[in-house]
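Q: How do we represent a protein-ligand complex in a form that can be generated token by token?
A: Start from the inputs.
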Amino acid sequence: EGSSSSGAGKFLALFAGAGAAELANLLDSNPDYDDSSYGPVLVRLAWHASGTYAKTDNTGGSNGATMRFPTESKWSANAGLQVARDLLEPIKKKYGDVLSYSDLWSIGGVVGVQELGGPTIKWRSGRIDTHKDRTVEDGRLPDASREDAQYSRDVFGRMGFNDQELVALLGAHALGRCHSDRSGFEGPWTHSSTTFSNAFYTHLLDEKWDVKKWKGPKQYEDKATKSLMMLPTDMSLTRDKEFKKWVTIYANDEEKFFADFAAAYASGLAQSITTRAV
Ligand code: DDH
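Then emit the structure tokens for the protein with DDH bound:
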């Protein structure tokens, strides 16, 4: 993969050695945090930094690291991601002359997926931090309460993703959990929230899902253990014929899920790099 500046190239060389290990070591640096891994929240940070992209006018995306500015960090969709940004700050301090925030946040997600047992993700450097707040309008990151398939299709379509890529990307919800003090939703999607696997799809198909009875926002819980959750947007994957086709394929073939996830996540993280100066 090419790199557009010698600085980023230098970081890549560093990263192959000490930098990679340092970043990986951060993941389990706090046994009291969640299920004792920062991996999931790093995967989410990389995703939210990238998921503002609009293919039609080439705005948004990971290039620029606009989530440094309060306009974007205060969006309700980004609640809780300060934890991930703070965690990465020592790496930025150490390698800051060769490493932008936007490259760091995206490689944090790559390391998170890989360290938690997921596929190797092709990562490329070259993102440049903007020095002014060029945040796009709020509302581009998906709203979890939307259960209609067309909503998710439109949001991912704006980013340039098709149905197959949308379903593959959602498999990241095998990792981590919802926090009532962040999004308002509560609980994990799988019993092994620090292992990257196709369990999101197998649970979606194999469990019976009821609307959870509680005071919080509408979410689903599994009938058998009541310990797992699905968001309304997650449930939409079982109610659309084309989405369900891919859910079934990934539930039955973890290798294909890994390959398709790796391709879509890599492309999502890189969408705004080559195409736009910041
Ligand atoms: Fe997600 N996600 N996500 N998500 N996400 C949440 C947590 C995590 C949506 C909503 C939520 C992706 C797509 C969607 C991860 C990765 C990815 C939470 C809970 C909500 C809500 C936040 C909290 O309370 O802490 C919605 C809606 C969508 C959608 O597209 C329709 C994608 C594509 C990814 C990805 O990485 C490719 C991860 C990982 C987490 C767990 C975070 C954690 O702290 O644990």
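Residues 139 and 258 are 29 Å apart (CA to CA). Residues 40-41, 43-44, 47, 80, 142, 144, 152, 169-170, 172-173, 175-179, 182-183, 185, 231, 233, 265 surround DDH (CB under 6 Å).
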